[in-house]
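Revision sheet: C-alpha coordinates.
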Amino acid sequence: MKLGRDEFQAWLDEVSPGTGSVRLAAVADLPRLRVKQQLARGNVAPATIAAISRGLDLDPLTQLARFEAFSDLVPSSPAVGEMPGFISSPGLFRASAERLENQPVTETQLGPESYDLAALYWFNLANDGALRARIADELGVNQPTLWKMLRTRLREDVALAVCEHAGWPGVSALVISEVLTGKEAGWVEECRATWANSVPVGQLLSCTEQRLQQVGKQERDRESFDRHLG
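Predicted:
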Protein backbone atom coordinates (compact mmCIF):
# COMPACT_ATOMS: atom_id res chain seq x y z
CA MET A 1 0.00 0.00 0.00
CA LYS A 2 1.45 3.34 -1.04
CA LEU A 3 0.61 6.96 -0.29
CA GLY A 4 0.54 9.56 -3.07
CA ARG A 5 3.39 12.03 -3.56
CA ASP A 6 1.16 15.12 -3.35
CA GLU A 7 -0.37 14.04 -0.05
CA PHE A 8 3.06 13.13 1.29
CA GLN A 9 4.62 16.41 0.16
CA ALA A 10 1.85 18.45 1.78
CA TRP A 11 2.46 16.60 5.03
CA LEU A 12 6.23 16.99 4.79
CA ASP A 13 5.98 20.72 4.03
CA GLU A 14 4.11 21.11 7.29
CA VAL A 15 6.18 18.93 9.61
CA SER A 16 9.63 19.52 8.09
CA PRO A 17 9.58 22.13 5.30
CA GLY A 18 12.45 22.22 2.85
CA THR A 19 13.78 18.79 3.72
CA GLY A 20 15.29 16.93 0.76
CA SER A 21 15.42 13.19 0.17
CA VAL A 22 18.98 12.81 1.46
CA ARG A 23 18.12 14.51 4.74
CA LEU A 24 14.88 12.53 4.96
CA ALA A 25 16.76 9.27 4.61
CA ALA A 26 19.15 10.30 7.37
CA VAL A 27 16.33 11.40 9.67
CA ALA A 28 14.39 8.20 9.08
CA ASP A 29 17.50 5.97 9.18
CA LEU A 30 16.49 4.49 5.83
CA PRO A 31 18.56 3.78 2.68
CA ARG A 32 18.82 6.88 0.49
CA LEU A 33 17.94 4.97 -2.66
CA ARG A 34 14.72 3.65 -1.14
CA VAL A 35 13.55 7.10 -0.15
CA LYS A 36 14.53 8.62 -3.52
CA GLN A 37 12.72 5.88 -5.44
CA GLN A 38 9.54 6.26 -3.41
CA LEU A 39 9.51 10.01 -3.90
CA ALA A 40 10.30 9.73 -7.62
CA ARG A 41 7.54 7.21 -8.21
CA GLY A 42 5.05 9.08 -6.07
CA ASN A 43 4.39 6.00 -3.96
CA VAL A 44 5.50 6.43 -0.38
CA ALA A 45 5.22 3.47 1.98
CA PRO A 46 3.41 3.96 5.31
CA ALA A 47 6.49 2.53 7.02
CA THR A 48 8.49 5.40 5.54
CA ILE A 49 6.04 7.93 7.03
CA ALA A 50 6.35 6.19 10.40
CA ALA A 51 10.15 6.15 10.21
CA ILE A 52 10.34 9.85 9.30
CA SER A 53 7.92 10.66 12.13
CA ARG A 54 10.12 8.85 14.63
CA GLY A 55 13.17 10.67 13.32
CA LEU A 56 11.37 14.00 13.82
CA ASP A 57 10.23 12.99 17.33
CA LEU A 58 6.61 12.94 16.19
CA ASP A 59 4.06 10.29 17.12
CA PRO A 60 3.86 7.89 14.13
CA LEU A 61 0.19 6.99 14.55
CA THR A 62 -0.87 10.62 14.87
CA GLN A 63 1.03 11.47 11.70
CA LEU A 64 -0.28 8.50 9.72
CA ALA A 65 -3.83 9.39 10.76
CA ARG A 66 -3.39 12.66 8.86
CA PHE A 67 -3.42 10.67 5.62
CA GLU A 68 -6.81 9.82 4.16
CA ALA A 69 -6.16 6.07 4.08
CA PHE A 70 -5.57 6.02 7.84
CA SER A 71 -7.77 8.90 9.00
CA ASP A 72 -10.09 6.62 11.00
CA LEU A 73 -7.34 5.00 13.06
CA VAL A 74 -7.27 5.59 16.81
CA PRO A 75 -5.00 4.12 19.50
CA SER A 76 -6.16 0.74 20.74
CA SER A 77 -4.97 -2.53 22.23
CA PRO A 78 -5.77 -5.67 20.20
CA ALA A 79 -9.25 -7.14 20.41
CA VAL A 80 -9.59 -10.30 22.47
CA GLY A 81 -10.10 -12.44 19.37
CA GLU A 82 -6.86 -11.33 17.70
CA MET A 83 -4.62 -11.30 20.79
CA PRO A 84 -3.09 -14.77 20.17
CA GLY A 85 -1.88 -13.56 16.77
CA PHE A 86 0.49 -11.16 18.50
CA ILE A 87 2.00 -13.92 20.63
CA SER A 88 4.72 -16.19 19.25
CA SER A 89 4.18 -19.94 19.21
CA PRO A 90 6.70 -20.67 22.01
CA GLY A 91 5.11 -17.83 23.99
CA LEU A 92 1.65 -19.30 23.60
CA PHE A 93 2.91 -22.74 24.61
CA ARG A 94 4.66 -21.27 27.67
CA ALA A 95 1.53 -19.38 28.66
CA SER A 96 -0.52 -22.58 28.63
CA ALA A 97 2.07 -24.41 30.70
CA GLU A 98 2.20 -21.60 33.27
CA ARG A 99 -1.58 -21.43 33.59
CA LEU A 100 -1.80 -25.18 34.06
CA GLU A 101 0.76 -24.81 36.85
CA ASN A 102 -1.31 -21.98 38.36
CA GLN A 103 1.57 -19.58 37.76
CA PRO A 104 1.24 -16.02 36.42
CA VAL A 105 2.29 -15.37 32.84
CA THR A 106 4.69 -12.48 32.29
CA GLU A 107 4.93 -10.29 29.21
CA THR A 108 8.50 -11.41 28.48
CA GLN A 109 7.43 -15.06 28.41
CA LEU A 110 5.16 -14.34 25.44
CA GLY A 111 8.01 -13.40 23.12
CA PRO A 112 8.10 -10.50 20.65
CA GLU A 113 4.89 -9.04 19.27
CA SER A 114 6.36 -9.36 15.76
CA TYR A 115 7.68 -12.77 14.74
CA ASP A 116 7.88 -15.14 11.77
CA LEU A 117 4.44 -16.05 10.36
CA ALA A 118 2.64 -13.68 12.74
CA ALA A 119 0.55 -12.40 9.81
CA LEU A 120 -0.53 -15.93 8.92
CA TYR A 121 -1.62 -16.83 12.44
CA TRP A 122 -3.35 -13.48 12.87
CA PHE A 123 -5.17 -13.88 9.54
CA ASN A 124 -6.30 -17.39 10.46
CA LEU A 125 -7.96 -16.05 13.60
CA ALA A 126 -10.11 -13.76 11.44
CA ASN A 127 -10.80 -16.22 8.65
CA ASP A 128 -14.36 -17.54 8.78
CA GLY A 129 -14.05 -19.20 5.39
CA ALA A 130 -15.13 -16.12 3.44
CA LEU A 131 -12.20 -13.80 4.14
CA ARG A 132 -9.94 -14.84 1.27
CA ALA A 133 -12.74 -14.40 -1.26
CA ARG A 134 -13.60 -10.99 0.18
CA ILE A 135 -10.03 -9.79 -0.14
CA ALA A 136 -9.85 -11.07 -3.70
CA ASP A 137 -13.11 -9.33 -4.63
CA GLU A 138 -12.48 -6.02 -2.86
CA LEU A 139 -8.74 -5.61 -3.38
CA GLY A 140 -8.00 -7.84 -6.36
CA VAL A 141 -5.44 -9.84 -4.41
CA ASN A 142 -5.21 -13.35 -5.83
CA GLN A 143 -4.50 -16.44 -3.77
CA PRO A 144 -0.79 -16.83 -4.66
CA THR A 145 -0.13 -13.18 -3.78
CA LEU A 146 -2.02 -13.44 -0.50
CA TRP A 147 -0.19 -16.69 0.32
CA LYS A 148 3.13 -14.91 -0.12
CA MET A 149 2.05 -11.88 1.95
CA LEU A 150 0.96 -14.07 4.84
CA ARG A 151 4.41 -15.63 4.97
CA THR A 152 6.43 -12.44 4.53
CA ARG A 153 4.70 -9.12 5.26
CA LEU A 154 1.01 -8.38 5.00
CA ARG A 155 0.21 -5.29 2.94
CA GLU A 156 -1.46 -2.53 4.94
CA ASP A 157 -4.68 -2.34 2.90
CA VAL A 158 -5.10 -6.11 3.14
CA ALA A 159 -4.55 -5.99 6.90
CA LEU A 160 -7.10 -3.17 7.19
CA ALA A 161 -9.62 -5.29 5.27
CA VAL A 162 -9.01 -8.15 7.71
CA CYS A 163 -9.68 -5.84 10.65
CA GLU A 164 -12.89 -4.57 9.08
CA HIS A 165 -14.05 -8.11 8.36
CA ALA A 166 -13.35 -9.30 11.92
CA GLY A 167 -14.44 -6.14 13.71
CA TRP A 168 -10.95 -5.56 15.14
CA PRO A 169 -9.31 -2.17 15.76
CA GLY A 170 -7.93 -0.80 12.51
CA VAL A 171 -4.65 0.15 14.13
CA SER A 172 -3.90 -3.55 14.57
CA ALA A 173 -3.38 -3.64 10.80
CA LEU A 174 -0.37 -1.36 11.12
CA VAL A 175 1.14 -3.49 13.88
CA ILE A 176 0.75 -6.76 12.00
CA SER A 177 2.15 -5.04 8.88
CA GLU A 178 5.18 -3.97 10.94
CA VAL A 179 4.55 -0.26 10.38
CA LEU A 180 3.98 0.48 14.08
CA THR A 181 4.99 -1.17 17.32
CA GLY A 182 2.34 -2.11 19.83
CA LYS A 183 3.35 0.80 22.02
CA GLU A 184 3.01 3.22 19.11
CA ALA A 185 -0.42 1.75 18.33
CA GLY A 186 -1.62 2.59 21.82
CA TRP A 187 -1.50 -0.83 23.42
CA VAL A 188 -2.13 -0.85 27.14
CA GLU A 189 1.08 -1.87 28.88
CA GLU A 190 1.40 -5.67 29.21
CA CYS A 191 -2.00 -6.19 27.56
CA ARG A 192 -0.87 -9.56 26.18
CA ALA A 193 0.04 -10.85 29.62
CA THR A 194 -3.25 -9.53 31.00
CA TRP A 195 -5.08 -11.51 28.34
CA ALA A 196 -3.02 -14.66 28.94
CA ASN A 197 -3.71 -14.48 32.68
CA SER A 198 -7.42 -13.68 32.44
CA VAL A 199 -8.69 -15.80 29.54
CA PRO A 200 -10.28 -19.07 30.69
CA VAL A 201 -7.70 -21.86 30.69
CA GLY A 202 -9.82 -23.97 28.37
CA GLN A 203 -9.94 -21.16 25.82
CA LEU A 204 -6.21 -20.60 26.10
CA LEU A 205 -5.60 -24.30 25.55
CA SER A 206 -7.90 -24.25 22.52
CA CYS A 207 -5.90 -21.38 21.00
CA THR A 208 -2.69 -23.22 21.76
CA GLU A 209 -4.00 -26.44 20.24
CA GLN A 210 -4.88 -24.65 17.00
CA ARG A 211 -1.44 -23.06 16.86
CA LEU A 212 0.24 -26.38 17.59
CA GLN A 213 -1.61 -28.00 14.71
CA GLN A 214 -0.51 -25.22 12.37
CA VAL A 215 3.12 -25.38 13.53
CA GLY A 216 3.08 -29.17 13.29
CA LYS A 217 1.87 -29.06 9.69
CA GLN A 218 4.54 -26.53 8.77
CA GLU A 219 7.26 -28.65 10.33
CA ARG A 220 6.04 -31.81 8.61
CA ASP A 221 5.96 -30.02 5.28
CA ARG A 222 9.47 -28.69 5.85
CA GLU A 223 10.83 -32.09 6.83
CA SER A 224 9.19 -33.68 3.81
CA PHE A 225 10.75 -31.04 1.57
CA ASP A 226 14.17 -31.58 3.13
CA ARG A 227 13.92 -35.35 2.65
CA HIS A 228 12.91 -34.83 -0.98
CA LEU A 229 15.94 -32.64 -1.59
CA GLY A 230 18.15 -35.19 0.11
